[in-house]
Write a structure and sequence with these properties.
The structure holds 2 protein chains of 2 kinds. Chain A is α+β, with helices and mostly antiparallel strands. In chain A, about 20% of the residues lie in helices and about 40% in strands. In chain A, strands 1, 2, 3, 4, 5, 6, 7, 8, 9, 10, 11, 12 and 13 form a 13-stranded mixed β-sheet that branches. In chain A, a hairpin with a 2-residue loop joins strand 5 (about 110-120) and strand 6. In chain A, helix 4 packs across helix 5 (about 235-245). The longest helix of chain A has 15 residues, at about 65-80. Chain A is globular and about 55 Å long. Chain B is mainly beta. Among the domains of chain B are: about 35-115, Sandwich (Immunoglobulin-like), CATH 2.60.40.1120; about 135-285, TonB-dependent receptor, plug domain (Ferric Hydroxamate Uptake Protein, Chain A, domain 1, Beta Complex). Chain B has 5 helices and 46 strands. Chain B is elongated and about 130 Å long. Classes of the chains: A alpha+beta, B mainly beta. At the A-B interface, helix 1, strand 1, helix 2, helix 3 and strand 6 of A face strand 2, strand 12, strand 38, strand 39 and strand 40 of B. Chain A: Keywords: Signal. Chain A: It comes from Pedobacter cryoconitis. Chain A: This is GLPGLI family protein. Chain B: GO terms for molecular function: carboxypeptidase activity.
Chain lengths: ~270, ~900
């Protein structure tokens, strides 16, 4: 239901015109498979998303391919004159959206910019880039043909194990992970609630920009964002209530179940 | 430390070329330890530019383990430390797109390494994969109505009320974000047009899988890119199990005082190519079923309000409704039947038909005292004690054919209505009498809209024609055994509006030219027969006039839509041609008027939190034929009215502005708005009294009336309590002039209204809601020594309890405090309780008790110009109602 609300609202609240600012050029594009556990009470039920890491000369962008694909398909259809009703009617055509965040590392310099959509609003917060204090271990293995070395860290309430390769000399990785002397190929937390693993990698020969959509974001602190995110995921009703200017009258008895909430970061 | 001091304060250029090695040297002396430090600078070989983000790693000579690593900063510098026992180690510099360089270094305290890197096409091992397949939606991922539904709900309207952003008003109008929705679809088809309460109130929420809100919905596809709308539409998606077959609900109930009944039967079939919804309802429990057939003023999608040809009844016997929920005061016996279908035809056409019939009998008892201010604190007071029986028969049918595609729109809607209404009032008051009023209202109309887009241009043609006929009659039988007297009053109006428009868009701008003709032919025929001598008028008891009004207009509009701003400017010029034929005097009066009615709209979005809007308009409007009567017309037995042969000219200016702040992070919403609307008129109402009879006349005299309002609303969500608190405040002032008993009076009414509300979900089995309404009305009449100030309070408290999954209880109380006159006030408490028991999935048993304290009447006072009316209305006694509800 959380997801459904989210999907529905984001389906109808797509922006009509894209106005993007090019902030870097992509040199390599890495594809990661994200496997995550939405409900800690059911650790065997996992969900998957397909994530893209665009590594530029100065910065990198990390986002969900599924979300990007759905948004672009809708935008094309909107441009071709489809009504929101038609789009909704055939939303099976577009498929599922994935994670709603976009993470720009080292943008602005020394910081991370996180953009995330909750319902119809896009929120933006910044935090410092070097988030993780890594301990490099001697253990090694091969991932996707690359020699990878183990590193561990504690971050955002979870303990992570990462595998990085110095053969790809970029100090970045999936999600907010960075700061190792090579690309992070795999990273997972101890409970395997969030597992990012590289699935593909390609060099970008042509100019492929890394861009940031220029729209009016609601800027807030990370703490405030987490509060909102938690509220939305645990109780989308209350969230939507406070997101619109109309009061909700709980005239009946809402037998609401608490929704599972297992955020990657606390 | 000195070094640090220098480090932060040294000039950067000097620092990079000279000071840096020196400082490092100092530094190493200072920390003479086992630790080795390597500092350096990495640049590009060809250009000499600093390289940022190069990875520096230190490794033992066998390259087995990583000893230390860092990256260069934006100036190309790095500094790295290591604790290492070996004699020497490797320093590796790597950067994507450059050759990796290695350097063997001695393990000594501090050393400086500057390197340049050569560009190289990276020989990255690519691993190419295809993006994953589209993950298809399945039934479990649909917007789930049941998430919002609770055991106390039955219809989809009950659930809609709880959906955030959606509000259902008492009359059934659905609001989204405070604005009325513009379409209500079921499975993407518009089955009921504006009468969507039929669906909202009768479709079981259990048959609906999702409700979709379409924001900024322009129903005419071909207009979507050029016309801005801030209205939303709703679409109901049914469960698969509910599609393609007949669904129904049946509700039966009986109660006390005997005989209280209700019976509702609904049958609906929603299939891919056709939909049908049929209903039969009857009750005598105070539920006004005619509200189900109410047209919720959907914007006329093409012509806005331009086609409003509706007339008001010449005979007006009904009293203004008391400010209390209608179901507390309605003594009714009602029957309703309606059949609605929509069918998809070939070539994207749709055909819709809606037929309905209502039979209503309403009884009421109302005691009132009306007081009109004369002079020197003198009032004319009229007492009435009215027993009223209203009988209504309303039949209505419409058929609409439409086609709505990306570049073509066609709609033709034909509608006919036959309304009969008979009111019988027996009055034992100042002037005891019996009145029988017959106020039928019949009309036929056809509305044709045609629209085509060609590239960026749009061509429109509209033709709206209506004929309405109101053959009304009033018979008054005074109790003093004088002859009854009769008034026949007949109006008929033929209204025709045809226009053509062309619009073209470029870069966010849209220019629209419209030209049209609006023609109205109104006939007014009235006659008063056997008027008793006691009435103050003797002649001018007949009217036979015809008014022909033509309005030739051109209306250019320019609109601009961008991300932050939406604006629209309309500059219409109207040429009116008026011809009044008085067949009694054989006098004809012709007049031409030229009007300029500009309108400007601006909507501005500062950022996602702040938005503002502004509207300014000027409108001129030449009244209606029912003000042209040169013979008297009775509105009711005690109100006679005479018009003026010169048409009314109203020049209304209106300025409004609003500012809204919405902070979802803080759950805080604030709205502020203001409106000021002064109107200049060429006519003034004059009222004089002769005993209980009030004679109204319209005289030619320029005057002004004005209206302004300031209002604000603040709401705050309190997450910890799952609660929302809100307060609205408004201040309204209206001012005008009238002549009463030959004296010019200036009257002004100010109203302050404060509405707090609070609701909370105390726990999973209990919820709580409170709304209050505190208002103060002040009436100032010039030459009256003091203002009349009346206060009114209405508070409502509601509690819902879930005993278990099958049983729930709902209780509420209403508190009213009304100041009936300056030194008299009444208060009243209502209490209601309802029980609902659900033994199975499709069956429900209800027990409802209303007005537990068995209150009998409700007193209130309303202002009317330079006067007021105090009323006591009868209310429904304690009712107990038991019912069963099935659905299949």
């Amino acid at each position: 239901m959380i997801k459904t609300c989210l999907i529905l609202i984001s389906f109808i609240a797509f922006s009509l015109c894209l106005n993007a600012q090019i902030i870097d050029k992509t040199s390599i594009e890495c594809q990661y498979k994200l496997t995550w556990v939405p409900d800690t009470l059911r650790p065997n039920q996992t969900k998957e998303d397909f994530m893209i890491l665009k590594v530029g000369h100065k910065l990198s962008e990390f986002y969900s391919y599924n979300t990007f694909r759905v948004d672009s398909m809708i935008q094309v259809d909107v441009k071709n004159g489809m009504s929101s009703l038609q789009i909704l009617a055939q939303r099976a055509k577009y498929g599922k959206k994935g994670m709603e965040y976009q993470i720009y590392k080292n943008y602005p310099e020394g910081k991370i910019t996180v953009i995330e959509k909750l319902m119809s609003d896009s929120y933006k917060y910044e935090e410092i880039l070097k988030l993780q204090k890594w301990a490099i271990e001697n253990e090694k293995k091969t991932i996707l043909g690359y020699n990878a070395q183990k590193a561990t860290c504690s971050f955002g309430g979870r303990k992570y194990t990462a595998w990085f390769t110095t053969e790809i000399p970029v100090s970045t990785g999936p999600w907010k992970f960075s700061g190792l002397p090579g690309l992070i190929l795999k990273v997972e937390d101890n409970n395997k609630n969030y597992v990012f693993e590289i699935a593909g990698l390609r060099k970008i020969k042509k100019d492929e920009p890394i861009s940031l959509e220029q729209k009016e974001y609601i800027e807030l602190t990370k703490t405030d964002f987490f509060k909102l995110d938690k509220k939305m995921k645990k109780d989308p009703l209350a969230f939507m209530n406070s997101n619109t200017s109309v009061t909700l009258k709980p005239s009946g008895n809402n037998q609401k179940k608490e929704r599972p909430y297992n955020p990657i970061e606390h | 430390m000195n070094t640090k001091f220098f480090f932060f304060h040294g000039c950067q250029v000097v620092f990079s070329h000279f000071l840096f090695p020196l400082l490092i040297l100092c530094c190493s002396f200072a920390n003479a330890a086992a630790q080795a430090t390597v500092n350096g600078y990495i640049k590009e070989e060809n250009t000499g530019a600093a390289i940022e983000g190069a990875i520096i790693t230190l490794l033992p000579k066998d390259e087995k383990n990583l000893l230390a690593y860092t990256t260069t900063n934006e100036k190309g510098y790095f500094s790295i430390q290591l604790n290492f026992d070996g004699r020497d180690f490797l320093l590796k510099v790597s950067m994507l797109g450059y050759q990796t360089r290695s350097l063997e270094l001695e393990n000594k305290n501090t050393q400086q390494v500057n390197l340049s890197l050569r560009e190289e096409i990276s020989n990255l091992k690519e691993v190419l994969i295809k993006p994953p397949r589209i993950i298809q939606y399945n039934d479990t991922i649909s917007y789930n109505v049941s998430s919002f539904a609770s055991d106390q709900d039955r219809s989809i309207a009950d659930v809609l009320k709880k959906m955030p952003g959606i509000d259902v008003q008492a009359d059934g109008t659905i609001l989204y974000n405070g604005k009325a929705i513009n379409k209500f679809y079921i499975e993407g088809l518009d089955l009921l047009d504006s009468k969507y309460s039929l669906a909202a109130n009768n479709i079981s929420f259990k048959d609906v899988s999702s409700v979709e809100v379409l924001e900024g919905h322009q129903p005419i596809k071909a207009l979507r890119s050029t016309t801005f709308t801030d209205k939303a539409a709703l679409n109901l998606k049914l469960k698969n199990s509910a599609k393609g077959k007949w669904l129904g609900t049946l509700e039966l109930g009986a109660g006390l005082p005997f005989p209280l009944w209700k019976a509702n039967l609904m049958a609906m079939k929603i299939a891919g190519a056709s939909q049908s919804l049929n209903l039969f309802k009857s009750n005598n429990t105070g539920q006004n079923i005619s509200t189900e057939l109410k047209s919720h003023t959907l914007e006329d999608l093409i012509n806005g309000q331009d086609n409003n040809a509706e007339q008001s009844n010449l005979i007006q016997l009904s009293e203004s409704a008391p400010p209390v929920n209608e179901d507390r005061i309605l003594f009714n016996r009602s029957y309703l039947g309606t059949i609605n279908t929509v069918r998809k035809l070939k070539h994207d056409y749709q055909l819709r038909t809606n037929i309905s019939y209502i039979n209503d009998q309403l009884k009421s008892n109302n005691q009132s005292e009306t007081a009109y201010y004369l002079t020197d604190n003198n009032f004319v007071r009229i007492q009435e004690n009215n027993n009223t029986i209203i009988q209504r028969n309303r039949a209505e049918g419409s058929a609409e054919l439409n086609k709505n595609t990306e570049n073509f729109y066609l709609k033709d809607k034909f509608r006919a209505q036959l309304f009969w209404e008979r009111s019988a009032i027996s009055n034992t008051g100042t002037s005891p009498n019996n009145q029988i009023g017959k106020t039928p209202y019949h009309l036929i109309e056809n509305d044709l809209n045609w629209l085509k887009t060609l590239g960026k241009s749009t061509l429109k043609f509209n033709s709206f024609n209506q004929y309405n006929y109101l053959p009304q009659e009033l018979v008054v039988s005074p109790d003093d055994e004088t002859m009854p007297f009769t008034q026949f009053a007949r109006t008929s109006t033929l209204f025709s509006h045809t226009n053509i428009s062309y619009s073209r868009g470029f870069r966010g701008w849209v220019i629209d030219y419209q030209a049209g003709i609006k023609a109205t032919i109104q006939n007014l025929n009235t006659e008063i027969q056997h008027l008793p001598m006691s009435y103050p008028v003797k002649d001018s008891l007949r009217n036979e006039l015809q008014w022909q009004l033509s309005d030739y207009y051109i209306k250019p509009t320019i609109r601009y839509n961008a991300k932050k701003i939406n604006l629209s400017l309309t500059l219409p010029i109207n040429l009116y041609n008026s011809k009044i034929n008085n067949r009694l005097t054989e006098h004809a009066e012709k007049e031409n008027y030229l009007y300029f009615n500009p309108e400007f709209l601006l909507f501005y979005k500062f950022n996602p939190l702040w938005t503002a809007n502004f509207k300014a308009s000027l409108s001129n409007d030449p009244g209606n034929a029912d003000r042209l009567n040169q013979g008297f017309i009775f509105r009711s037995y005690r109100y006679l009215e005479l018009g003026n042969r010169t048409p009314l000219i109203q020049r209304r200016q209106s300025y409004s502005a609003g500012l809204s702040y919405r902070n979802p992070v803080k759950s805080l919403f604030v709205n502020l708005s203001g409106i000021y609307a002064p109107t200049l008129l060429n006519q003034l109402s004059q009222r004089s009294f002769s005993g209980f009879i009030s004679v109204g006349e319209i005289i030619l005299q320029n005057n002004q009336k004005s209206f302004w309002r300031l209002s604000g609303r603040l709401s705050k969500g309190i997450d910890d309590w799952k609660a929302t608190a809100a307060i609205s405040v408004s201040y309204t002032s209206t001012e005008g002039e009238l002549i009463q008993q030959n004296k010019l009076l200036n009257n002004k009414t100010n109203t302050l209204q404060i509405t707090p509300s609070f609701n909370a979900e105390v726990s999973s089995w209990c919820n709580f809601s409170y709304t209050g309404d505190f208002s103060r009305n002040s009436l100032f009449v010039s030459s009256a020594p003091t203002a009349l100030i009346l206060d009114r309070i209405n508070q409502r408290l509601g509690i819902g309890l879930i005993i278990n999954k099958k049983l729930n209880v709902k209780a509420g109380t209403d508190y009213f405090y009304n100041q009936v006159s300056v030194n008299k006030s009444v208060s009243l408490i209502f209490a209601d309780i309802g029980l609902r028991y659900m033994p199975g999935k499709n069956i429900e048993i209800n027990l409802d008790c209303t007005n537990l304290f068995n209150k009998k009447n409700y007193a209130y006072t309303l202002y009317d110009g330079a006067g007021y009316t105090s009323n006591i209305a009868m209310i429904r006694p304690a009712n107990v109602m038991a019912g069963v509800y099935f659905r299949w």
